[in-house]
Amino acid sequence: MSTVPLRVAVVCASNQNRSTEAHYFLSKRGFSVRSFGTGTHVKLPGPTPDQPNVYDFQTTYDQMYNDLVSKDRDLYTQNGMLHMLERNKRIKPRPERFQNCQDVFDLIVTCEESVYDQVVEDMNSREQVTCQPVHVINVDIEDNDEEATVGAILICKLCQCIQHTEDMEDELDELLQEFEEKSGRPFLHTVCFY
To answer: What is its EC number (predicted)?
Structure first.
């Protein structure tokens, strides 16, 4: 069992809901964690499905919050966007894009298969320098408040179990199989290298 906390990245599309909820849970339990999105822009629900609010990754959560308040406080209070942005502001200043990060992680957890594909593609396109392995795991989490919390708890339990393994390389596949059976959710897993 390692006494050094796992270095974990949690990734969803816009670094708003699922990844930041998991970031919050993991940081409270002592993990070295960062959260990211993989999209080209940050998208939040708008007044209609075909009118999302679109921001770049340099826009702070505070700026997004103020923008939504100025557009329609009632709507964005009712749909939970203001509450989510309040939480996000307590975790970090702004969303971050995974493809722009050069930090090294032991584990990258994605929240949907398309994000997993983007992370694996990005990792495989990078020049391998140290050949240090990083495990990339996907668990599909629906993008809503309730599922984000359920998914964050599941990711946290998974990270805690991985942290307590004697040999992550040997035990991870079996551990993921157990989590699939317990949660009823399929997990994808691959190894990439730095």
So the answer is: 3.1.3.16
The pLDDT of residue 5 is 84
Which residues partner with 192 through β-bridges? 134
- Nearest CA to 159 among 18, 26, 15, 19? 26
First to last CA, the chain: 23
Q: SS3 sequence, the chain?
A: CCCCCCEEEEEECCCCCHHHHHHHHHHHCCCEEEEEECCCCEEECCCCCCCCEEECCCCCHHHHHHHHHHHHHHHHHHCCHHHHHHHHHHHCCCCCEHHHCCCCCCEEEECCHHHHHHHHHHHHHCCCCCCCEEEEEEECCCCCHHHHHHHHHHHHHHHHHHHCCCCHHHHHHHHHHHHHHHHCCCEEEEEEEC
| pTM (2 d.p.) | 0.96
Phi, psi for 6 (deg, rounded to 5): -60, 140
193: β partners: 133
Q: Would you say 188 and 138 are in contact if contact means Cβ atoms under 8 Å apart?
A: yes
pLDDT tens digit string along 32-72? 999 999 999 999 999 999 999 999 999 999 999 999 999 99
